[in-house]
C-alpha cells in the first residue's frame, strides 16, 4: 500500500471549488469544513506532520482524511453511518402526540402534562417532551389578549403612530400616563446580599408604608422624562401636570400629548385648561391599547430597575428613589425606537381577528 504521508493530493478544478465552498461557507458543518481545509492544505504539498503543524491539529487526523480522500475523493469526506439503537417511536405515535396536544384535553383537566400524555400514547415522558420541543408546543403556557372595541381604532392608531414615525415640525411629542398606587414596601427581615453562587435573598412578607402616584411624560424625540409625584390622580392633578409640562417646554413649540382614555383626561377642568393653552393638543390611544403608549415602556424600566427589588422604609424614601431614578434616566436619556407602521399594526390585528372569528370560536 502506498504511503499516504508522501502521496501528493491532486485536485480537479471542480473538486477545488467544492472544497473551498465547504471550507468557507458558514452553514457547512464544522467537521466537514475542517476536512475540506485538510485536503486543500495537503494539495499545497507537504507531509502529514507539516500539514498538521500548519492547521494546528494532530497528524493522525490529517493522515485519516488524506487517505480517505485519495481513496474515495469527495465522497470520502462525508460521515459514515454510525451504529446506534434502532428507532422505537413510530411516526403514528409522533402524530398522535401532536394531534392530542392540539385538539384534545385530558379528562378533568385543562391541558396535558407530559406524564399524562405519555401514558395515553404509550411512550416515555421524555419522548413526549422531545416531540413538543420539535414542534414548538408548550401546553403549560398561556397568554392573554384583548381586541380593542374602540370604533375609532384605526384612526387613533394612525394618529399615534404618525406622531412616532413622522412628528410635526416645531413641535414636542410627549407620551403621558400615570402609575398609580406605587407602594412603599419594606421587608420584615433585612435583605441578605448576593454571594458567589447565592442570589440576593429577601423575606417573602413585607410592610406597607403608604402609596404615591407618579405622572410621567416621555419626550419621544429625546427620551427625557418629566415626572411629578402626587397623592392622587384626579383631573386637577392631571391639569397641574400639563402646566408643569408647559413650564418645561420651549415656548415656541407646539405640544402634542399622547394619553389614554381615563375620564380625568377628558374632564371639564382639563378641557378649560386646553382652551387657555392652544399650543397643546391631546391625542388619545384606542381603548385597551396601552401597548401603543411609549411611556409604558419607560414604566416597565422603572418597575424592573427601581421598584421591583427596592426597599423603602417610608413614603419619603420612595419619593426620593423615584426622583433620583428620573434624574439618572434623564442624565443618560435615550429615546425608544418605534419601528411598526400603522398599516403593519392594523394588518396584524386583522389577521388575529380572522383567527379568532372562525366557527370553532
From TrEMBL:
Tc1-like transposase DDE domain location: 189-319
Pfam families named among the record's database cross-references: DDE_3, HTH_32
Annotated InterPro entries: Homeodomain-like_sf, MscS-like_channel, RNaseH-like_sf, RNaseH_sf, Tc1-like_DDE_dom, Transpos_IS630-like
Highest taxon of source: Bacteria
Record GO terms (molecular function): nucleic acid binding
PANTHER family: MECHANOSENSITIVE CHANNEL MSCK (PTHR30347:SF1), POTASSIUM CHANNEL RELATED (PTHR30347)
NCBIfam families attached to this UniProt entry: transpos_IS630
Stated name of the protein: IS630 family transposase
Amino acid at each position: 500500500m502506498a504511503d499516504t504521508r508522501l502521496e501528493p493530493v491532486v485536485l480537479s478544478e471542480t473538486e477545488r471549488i467544492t472544497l473551498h465552498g465547504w471550507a468557507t461557507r458558514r452553514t457547512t458543518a464544522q467537521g466537514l469544513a475542517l476536512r475540506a481545509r485538510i485536503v486543500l492544505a495537503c494539495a499545497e504539498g507537504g507531509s502529514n506532520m507539516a500539514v498538521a503543524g500548519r492547521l494546528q491539529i494532530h497528524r493522525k487526523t490529517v493522515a485519516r482524511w488524506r487517505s480517505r480522500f485519495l481513496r474515495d475523493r469527495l465522497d470520502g469526506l462525508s460521515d459514515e453511518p454510525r451504529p446506534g439503537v434502532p428507532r422505537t417511536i413510530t411516526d403514528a405515535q409522533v402524530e398522535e402526540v401532536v394531534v392530542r396536544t392540539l385538539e384534545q384535553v385530558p379528562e378533568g383537566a385543562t391541558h396535558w402534562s407530559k406524564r399524562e400524555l405519555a401514558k395515553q400514547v404509550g411512550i416515555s415522558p421524555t419522548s413526549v417532551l422531545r416531540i413538543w420541543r420539535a414542534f414548538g408546543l408548550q401546553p403549560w403556557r398561556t397568554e392573554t389578549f384583548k381586541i380593542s372595541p374602540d370604533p375609532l381604532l384605526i384612526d387613533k392608531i394612525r394618529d399615534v403612530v404618525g406622531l412616532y414615525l413622522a412628528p410635526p415640525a416645531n413641535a414636542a411629542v410627549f407620551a403621558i400616563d400615570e402609575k398609580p398606587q406605587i407602594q412603599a414596601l419594606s421587608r420584615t427581615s433585612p435583605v441578605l446580599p448576593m454571594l458567589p453562587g447565592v442570589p440576593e435573598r429577601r423575606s417573602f412578607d413585607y410592610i406597607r408604608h403608604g402609596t404615591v402616584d407618579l405622572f410621567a411624560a416621555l419626550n419621544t424625540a429625546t427620551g427625557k422624562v418629566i415626572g411629578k409625584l402626587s397623592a392622587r390622580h384626579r383631573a386637577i392633578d392631571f391639569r397641574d401636570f400639563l402646566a408643569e409640562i408647559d413650564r418645561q417646554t420651549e415656548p415656541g413649540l407646539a405640544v402634542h400629548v399622547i394619553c389614554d382614555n381615563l375620564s380625568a383626561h377628558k374632564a371639564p377642568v382639563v378641557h378649560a385648561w386646553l382652551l387657555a393653552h392652544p399650543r397643546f393638543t391631546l391625542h388619545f390611544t384606542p381603548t385597551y391599547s396601552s401597548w401603543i403608549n411609549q411611556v409604558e415602556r419607560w414604566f416597565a424600566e422603572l418597575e424592573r430597575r427601581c421598584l421591583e427589588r427596592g426597599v423603602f422604609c417610608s413614603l419619603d424614601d420612595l419619593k426620593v428613589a423615584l426622583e433620583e431614578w428620573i434624574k439618572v434616566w434623564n442624565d443618560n436619556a435615550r429615546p425608544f425606537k418605534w419601528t411598526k407602521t400603522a398599516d403593519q399594526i392594523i394588518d396584524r390585528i386583522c389577521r388575529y381577528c380572522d383567527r379568532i372569528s372562525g366557527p370553532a370560536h
